[in-house]
Amino acid sequence: MVFNADILIHAGLGNSDQQHWQSIWEKQFNFTRIEQQDWETSVCSDWIKTINDYVNRYDPENVILVGHSLACAAIASWAKQYNIAIKGVLLVAPSDTEADSYPTGTSGFTPMPLGKLPFKSITVFSNNDFYVSRERASLFADSWGSEIVNIGDAGHINVSAGYGEWNEGLELLKKLDAGY
């Protein structure tokens, strides 16, 4: 599989370990991981600045961001603040930072950003994600103007839910790369 866009991977809280689909994709396709300074007590404004720094290393119109979990809120917040037209974004398992189930220790990620994104987006979620209800994930995707993909009972779409290699996700990324 060949990608034409510059793919930037952004993990969620705690970063993604080597068995996570994001890490597998990063190695397999030589994607770039956005490295945050603090993965445990994350500050939204710091994450937004770092995202912007990485995007501006490339031609933004050729960048696709791939966010998982908390990175989805950070990317939506980045889009609201900077309004840069990138090629697209794949938002997977967005965490609901306003939910009781959301871990403590982060700051600035509430309220959830609900503005329409200024670029193409696909939001993928599951029916039984501990960090977001199906209804809230659908609200986020609708608000962002995303194509919505519900993949059923898939937990948080991470390693513990059985998502190391994730070929269906690659197909969605390829769709964004083709400009769907």
Automatic annotation (TrEMBL):
Name of the molecule in the record: Alpha/beta hydrolase
Pfam families in the cross-refs: Ser_hydrolase
Organism of this sequence: Mucilaginibacter gossypii
UniProt-recorded Gene Ontology molecular function terms: hydrolase activity
TM helices/strands, residue ranges: none
Cross-referenced Gene3D superfamilies: alpha/beta hydrolase
Coiled-coil regions, chain positions: none
Cross-referenced InterPro entries: AB_hydrolase_fold, RBBP9/YdeN
